[in-house]
Amino acid sequence: MEPENFFKAQSFTHSSVCRFFATKKNSTNFEEATTGRGELAEEEERFASLIRKCPSMRILNQIHAHILTHPRLPPSTLSFALSKVLCFAAYRNVQYAKALLSQIPYPSIFSYNTVMRGVLLQNPSPEPIFLFRRLVQKKFPISNTFTLAFVLKCCSLLPAFEEGKQVHKHVIASGLGENLFVRTSLLNFYTKCEEVELGRKVFDEMTEKNVVAWSAMIGGYAKVGMVNEAFGLFRRCKRVG
């Protein structure tokens, strides 16, 4: 039975999940039931389709259990399936998603970013900083612009100024310092931490400034009572358009 049929007439139950996994479980080896990368890709799409339509965390728990007990899933397919479970869980039960991250054989940077974002959307905690440290220590997967933006946002919310400065050093070392998205995240971090001089340095070094950058710098000045600087920058923003 295809995953789409499970959700018709509210029929997505424990037994339907079992039927979904039954075909391949009849084989002693997952790879015996698939021939080549094409069929593996089809199986991965079936997993993705099943999880996308999952109606609740209770059903997701059942899917998760079936994936973990599936006989000899290739590590790449297991990683793919668990990453889809993580993506569903991160915005509903972030603690569940954090635990699941350690079960993925080859977690992608997307999985790390998903957990970081899930934490930030709920009750901000130092968890994104801990995850970022793990990434730096392991050197795999490689952080991307979203990773840096999420961890800098975490540092600005807590606030965690010293940790944010360490992230800034990593930004420079990684070669992502010229990226507008990362630059704006750095600027926002410094102004939220009321370190307007450091924020202004980042701002002045930006070859391209978007509305978010101008707003962050003007708001940073206003936050610390530097009204003249805020108005001056606002007038400059109006002139440059």
TrEMBL record:
PPR repeats: 210-241
Keywords recorded for this protein, A-Z: Repeat
Pfam families membership: PPR
Molecular function GO terms recorded: RNA binding
BP GO terms, sorted: RNA modification
Recorded coiled-coil stretches: none
Protein's UniProt name: Pentatricopeptide repeat-containing protein
